[in-house]
Each structure stands twice: as C-alpha cells, then as structure tokens.
Amino acid sequence: MRRHSDGRIEAAAWGSSKDRLLAGVPALLGANDDDSGFVAHHDVVARARRANPGLRLGATGVVWDWLVLAVLEQKVAGKEAIRSWAELCRRFGTRAPGPGPERLRVPPGPAMLLALPDWHWHRTGVDIKRRTALVNAARIAGHLERAVELGGLEGRHWLRQVPGIGVWTAAEIAQRAWGDPDAVSFGDYNIPSMVGHAVLGTKLDDAGMAEVLKPYAPQRQRAVRYLEAAGHTRPRFGPRIELRDYRAM
User: Fold this and answer.
1) Which of 66, 156, 210, 240 is deepest in the core (most CB within 10 A)?
2) How far from chain centre, in Å, is Cα 169?
3) Rounded distance, CA 67 to CA 172, Å?
4) What is the average pLDDT score of the chain?
5) Residue 10: beta bridge partners?
6) pLDDT tens sequence across 13-26
C-alpha cells in the first residue's frame, strides 16, 4: 500500500486471494470503524483522543493468521512468540506471490500445522500447551472464520469453543479480525497495570481494570487503544523477564 500526498491510498495485491484482499483494504485501514459515539470518562483518555484524532480500529476479516500468532503469544514474552512465528513461517510457509524478496513467506495454513510431527514443533520453540491449542483450532479452522460474521461478544464466544482459546486469546483475535471496539485483553501481563497507572496512578489487576473501563462499554478496547497510542506503558521495575527457549528443553 502507498499513501499519496492527497490522502489517497494505492494498493496492489498478488496471489489467489488478491481480489478479496483489495476489497478489504478500506476495512483494514479502519474506514468502517466509527468512534463518533465514544465518550471519554477520564481526562487522560480525553487528552489521548484529542492527540490521536485519526486513530481507527482496522479489521483484516480473517481469523486464522491472527489466531496462530495469538496462541503463540500465550503466557510467553513477545520476543519468544515472534521467534516461534518466524520459525514456523520460514520452515513451513510458502513463498509469497508477487515481487517481494525470496525470504518473504506466507504463514502456514491449518493443513500444514496438522501435518507437523512433534519434533518440528519443538524446533520452533512451541510447548505442548500452545501446540495442542493450535492443533485443536486447525482441525476446525474453516468454522472459526464465522466469528467475523458474528462479531462482538458472540464472535468471541464462538472462538472460545476451541480448547486452549480463552478470554485473552479470543480478544486478541477479535481486535484484529473484525476490529472489535469492546474486546479487552483481560489476562494480559501489561495492560491492566498500564490502564491503572494512566488513569489512577496505581497498579490494577483485571478486576480493577474492568471496573475502570466499565463506563466505556461497548467501546472499552477503544479506550485502551487511545491510551496506548498516547504512549502510556506499564512502569518497569527490576530486570526484564528472562526468555525461555523451549528448544533447549
């Protein structure tokens, strides 16, 4: 995609799904998102919104790719999840169509993940719990795409029928697949503390964050996104968490 000086977006796509991808560009860029009904109930959220007037929640319209990444991010550091994602794409993804570099890969689909033997999962650094969740999802991957049509709480509930996909994972998928403005990532290591320090100046747990965000329903995730876009983060104390390399276990 290329943005012109007059604001127009020029997009090109390759491969068997190029028509669908091109048709989905407006939604991907947030053209279908509407925050006109959003009300800021805290000064810090109001300031964040004024500072980011063009923020919109984009939607890819696809569950599978985000599901894989969200499951890989369960209970591990982000760098570890990205490393496993990169290994899966490099080893088992196919070359991306179009003029991209040779190393650019399309992520592996459900059939490929179902065919992977245990030792390949180990080599990519994915433990048995996350592996099982991905295999469970791959077996019914076609049905999971219906979550986009359902949207909202119903769509998240549909995703959670898969063993291994809980509240956090369903919310992470919903935020990206259909731009769900109310899908808060409860269970996240950083977000409750970030929201607490931004709004109240103190650390919060999930229950505390739910109470703070309650007035923003059904746009609680939008409030979180405004705070993130404004640069609010969780205060860091002590050393960083040491990354676990499951390949060495």
Assistant:
1) 156
2) 8
3) 8
4) 93
5) 2
6) 999 999 999 999 99
Each residue's pLDDT tens digit, 33-57: 988 899 999 999 999 999 999 899 9
Secondary structure (3-state) at 155:
helix
Amino acid in position 134:
L
Pairing of strands 105-106, 94-95: antiparallel
With H, G, I as helix, E, B as strand and everything else as coil, classify residue 209.
helix
Residues 126 and 246 sit within 8 Å (Cβ to Cβ): yes
C-alpha 225/C-alpha 213 separation (Å) is 12
User: What Rg value do the Cα atoms of the chain yield, rounded?
Assistant: 19
Dihedrals φ, ψ of 46, to 5°? -60, -40
CA 63 to chain centroid, in Å, comes to 10
106 has which bridge partners? 94
Q: E strand or H helix at 2, and its extent?
A: strand 2-3
What is the CA angle 110-113-116, rounded to 5? Answer: 155
Distance CA 95, CA 89 (A): 9
Q: Per residue in 113-159, pLDDT tens?
A: 999 999 999 999 999 999 999 999 999 999 999 999 999 999 999 99
| Mean pLDDT computed over 221-246 | 79
